[in-house]
Amino acid sequence: MTLLVIGLGNPGSKYHGTRHNTGFDVVDKLASKFGVKFSKPFFKKYFITHITYNSNKFILVKPTTYMNRSGEVLPSLLSKYKLTNSSVVIVVDNLDIEKGLLKFKLKGSDGGHNGLKSINDYLGSNEYKRLFVGIGRPPKGESITEYVLSPIEDNEVLEAEDRAVEGLLRLTSDSISQVMNYINRRKIDK
């Protein structure tokens, strides 16, 4: 099995470590776990690296487009690796999921998320795997834009990113329902 795992975020150091870049953080953590580094192919709008786990291949991608243009990288990647939408896994932040929780879905609407809207537009479908990292809603009175573009200061979100990595790896050995049960469970209090 080959999985094209695309973490969504905004490029540049200004956005590094922000809530809106949890998708980048998850694929970074997955790459780090296997000791691989990302590289940027000439004339391409993404950073990419590869890992093999349980005889399965993960193609990890971080688009260099801004969030609302994330889907631009898909046509060339799907063509290059001869993949279909069923091989795509998008990792993305979600305001409507409580901090520290994860949600795995096989299809669905963009939910107002500009990154997913772009993915849907370029795939021509909303049927692809998504792994949501809950970042919760901002405190009353704080703008959503300021909130999502501010640094992650919540241990729950950082721990959820670690669980997201484990969930992605389980895609190689567990059934989809087992993966969904693992990822979608409520966090365990310490």
TrEMBL record:
TRNA binds at Y15, Y66, N68, N114. The active site is at H20 (proton acceptor). GO terms for cellular component: cytoplasm. It comes from the Bacteria. InterPro entries: Pept_tRNA_hydro, Pept_tRNA_hydro_CS, Pept_tRNA_hydro_sf. GO terms for molecular function: peptidyl-tRNA hydrolase activity; tRNA binding. Keywords: Cytoplasm, Hydrolase, RNA-binding, tRNA-binding. One of its GO terms (biological process) is protein quality control for misfolded or incompletely synthesized proteins. It is found in: Cytoplasm. It holds the Pfam family Pept_tRNA_hydro. Its main location: cytoplasm. SUPFAM superfamilies: Peptidyl-tRNA hydrolase-like (SSF53178). This is Peptidyl-tRNA hydrolase. It comes from Thiospirochaeta perfilievii. The gene is pth.
